Amino acid sequence: MTSSGQSAGHSADPADSVVVLFKGGRLPSWHRLSQSEQEAFSQEHVDLMLSVSRRYRLMHLEGFRLLGPQDHWQRFWLIEFPSLEGAEAWIQAEMAPPYGRYGHYEYHLARRGPQGDFTGQAAHPPARQLPAAADDPHRIPSLRIDPTSLVVLSFRRWLPGAAELSAEERGEVEQVRRLQAVAQSHGLIRLERFRLMAPQADWHEVCLAELPSFAAAEAWMEAETALPYSSLVLLNMHLARKWAPAYFAQWVCAVPSD
Questions:
Q1: Is residue 193 within 8 Å of 252, Cβ to Cβ?
Q2: What's the whole-model pTM score?
Q3: Are 17 and 85 in contact (CB under 8 A)?
Q4: Which of 52, 92, 101, 161 has the most CB atoms in a 10 Å sphere around its CB?
Q5: What are the tens digits of pLDDT across the range 155-201?
Q6: Which is it for strands 233-243 and 145-158: parallel, antiparallel or unpaired?
Q7: Which residues contact 133 (CB under 8 A, 6 or more apart)?
């Protein structure tokens, strides 16, 4: 296992991996189904997605539930495969009916980005408690948030002309110092960046910062939006909780090792 506790023991190189960034949620029509229909569709869906996970060597699966849902966007997902083929198969399977009729889907393909000057524990989070090998991800438990930390999701892009300036001129050097101070004083748990393979009009990358408390998350967001850096970047931020992390760790553990 890697230090994140989410990657299977195969030889895929994370530097070459493809990450599916998924803004998802359930449509209101889902809640008009009977409980038996929901359970049957969910089980069929999980069985299908687990088969894709095994076939294409799922490397990482992690979900986050937004504290403030954005219309039908309720959760954000990181889904990592060693190849584009796996990412494409996952997306196609996830949208397949009958379960796929009731979902909100927005997918973006990305690569892992550099962590900048953040090293040590924040860049390489400590190992997590993994489920026993005997745990079967086909059995769907009651899914809940993990209340022990908060995640700040920052979607960003430089405003026109900013990329041509130096890091000093953009205030980027000063901003990194502020973030480092928050990381040290509030105990940043981890920091990850993902850069889109196809940049969007309003964001080119997403930064995921996991922190231990609301006070820490607030301090991080204040540092992110400080001037002059924030005057040159388009920034959209959301607070989230990790979504059933122990269960989705089982999905990666179920992928056979080389």
A1: no
A2: 0.89
A3: no
A4: 52
A5: 999 999 998 999 889 989 999 999 999 999 999 999 999 999 999 99
A6: antiparallel
A7: 253
